[in-house]
């Protein structure tokens, strides 16, 4: 069975096929970072499902294994209610998530990281994001490349510009097993 | 080991309709996911009108569309429903198929407005990504999907609601 992103198979419900690894709920006062660490290599893929709001309305960032080098690259397709646009950036120092519209109120993402524990190839994440504010907002698809063959053992979500993830932001990490 | 991704209810439409409802949705999950295997009974290519808890206020949305030649983005504000597959993403022919998947994250909390994140894909018309807002902090206990026209969903269409539990 595979459940990748918003693709669901017809066979669901077996214990352990789609497993909750860890969950982070932001409390009062907010949190500048959300860190999933010591991620076991026992799954085929990872999925992160989140609702998030930031104290400074900007995009969210993420890093794998605390790598701050310029080892990330991305492509994005998004719509802002008036126009559709596409963009790409090479040699980034982080995974970029909805950088043009930000998360000034609660938005959502569903992120998939396929073959995250494979040590023979670079890693690619993809996510669907959306935020609507009754008159503004954005929806889109983004994909980020991490040019490292290391297994991903840590994922850190970083609120940019010195801000915090607001109370009630919620991040859940799941593991997906293959047959 | 607990089951994390669980089927709540599945319905195979016994006859053509333009209304699908899930009622009495339990608040025991973290997220719910609706998967709609849409078979068309008409040539209407309808927008799916999504509402919660029987209400008709507080909805808005943003859409991103592609039809094979043009990309575009649209918005609804102060609407009576969330628009899913507003421009493309539903079939244009009788018997045409579409796959529509909606994510309702933290649907049962009573502190934040609710957001749905969806994708609709129909080879006949195109693909669409949608985000919709319900400006209401109530837990979602009922989901209704309708269209503006009659009997758009053919017999044999399959709609399944899943629940996802975080640790």
What does this structure look like?
The complex is a heterodimer of chains A (179) and B (167). Mean pLDDT of chain A is 90; it is low at 1-13. Chain A contains no helices and 12 strands. Chain A is mainly β and 179 residues long. In chain A, the strands form 2 sheets. In chain A, strands 1-12-3-8-9-10-5-6 form an 8-stranded antiparallel beta sheet, with no helix packed on it. Chain B has one domain (5-164): Jelly Rolls. Chain B has no helices and 12 strands. The model of chain B has no long low-confidence stretch (mean pLDDT 97). By secondary structure, chain B is mainly beta. Chain B is globular and about 40 Å long. The chains are: A mainly beta (179), B mainly beta (167). Chains A and B meet through β1, β3, β5, β8 and β9 of A and β1, β3, β5, β6 and β8 of B.
Assign the structural class of chain A, choosing from mainly alpha, mainly beta, alpha/beta, alpha+beta, or little secondary structure: mainly beta
CATH class of chain B: Mainly Beta
Query: Order of strands across the widest beta sheet of chain B?
Result: 1-12-3-8-9-10-5-6
Number of separate domains of chain B: 1
Q: List low-confidence stretches of chain A.
A: 1-13
Tally of DSSP β-strands of chain B: 12
Helix/sheet category of chain B? mainly beta
The largest sheet of chain A, given as strand count, sense and whether it forms a barrel, is: 8 strands, antiparallel
The radius of gyration of chain A is 16 Å
The H/E string of chain A reads EEEEEEEEEEEE
Question: Could you tell me how far the N terminus lies from the C terminus of chain B, measured between alpha carbons in angstroms?
Answer: 11 Å
Summarize this entry quickly:
Helices cover 0% and strands 47% of the residues of chain A.
What brief labels describe this structure?
heterodimer, A: 179 residues, 12 strands, 47% strand, B: 167 residues, mainly beta
């Amino acid at each position: 069975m595979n459940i990748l992103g918003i693709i669901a198979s017809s066979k669901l419900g077996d214990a352990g096929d789609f497993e909750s690894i860890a969950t982070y709920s932001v409390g009062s006062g907010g949190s500048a970072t959300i860190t999933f660490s010591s991620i076991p290599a026992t799954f085929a893929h990872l999925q992160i499902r989140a609702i998030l709001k930031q104290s400074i309305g900007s995009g969210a960032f993420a890093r794998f294994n605390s790598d701050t080098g310029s080892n990330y690259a991305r492509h994005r397709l998004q719509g802002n209610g008036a126009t559709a646009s596409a963009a790409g950036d090479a040699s980034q120092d982080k995974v970029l998530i909805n950088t043009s519209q930000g998360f000034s109120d609660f938005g959502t993402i569903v992120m998939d990281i396929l073959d995250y524990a494979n040590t023979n190839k670079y890693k690619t994440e993809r996510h669907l994001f959306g935020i609507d504010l009754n008159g503004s907002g954005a929806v889109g698809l983004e994909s980020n490349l991490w040019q490292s063959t290391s297994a991903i053992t840590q994922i850190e979500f970083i609120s940019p510009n010195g801000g915090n993830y607001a109370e009630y932001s919620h991040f859940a990490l799941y593991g997906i097993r293959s047959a | 080991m607990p089951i994390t991704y669980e089927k709540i209810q599945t319905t195979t439409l016994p006859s053509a309709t333009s209304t699908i409802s899930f009622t009495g949705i339990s608040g025991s999950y973290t997220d719910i996911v609706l998967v709609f295997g849409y078979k068309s009974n008409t040539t209407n290519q309808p927008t799916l009108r999504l509402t919660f808890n029987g209400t008709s206020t507080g909805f808005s949305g943003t859409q991103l569309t592609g039809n094979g030649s043009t990309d575009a983005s649209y918005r609804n504000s102060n609407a009576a429903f969330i628009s899913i597959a507003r421009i493309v993403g539903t079939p244009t022919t009788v018997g045409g198929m579409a796959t529509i998947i909606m994510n309702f994250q933290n649907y049962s909390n009573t502190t934040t407005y609710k957001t749905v994140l969806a994708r609709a894909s129909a080879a006949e018309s195109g693909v669409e990504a949608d985000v919709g807002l319900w400006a209401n902090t109530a837990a979602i206990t009922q989901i209704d999907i309708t269209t503006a026209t009659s009997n758009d969903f053919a017999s044999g269409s399959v709609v399944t609601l899943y629940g996802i539990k975080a640790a």
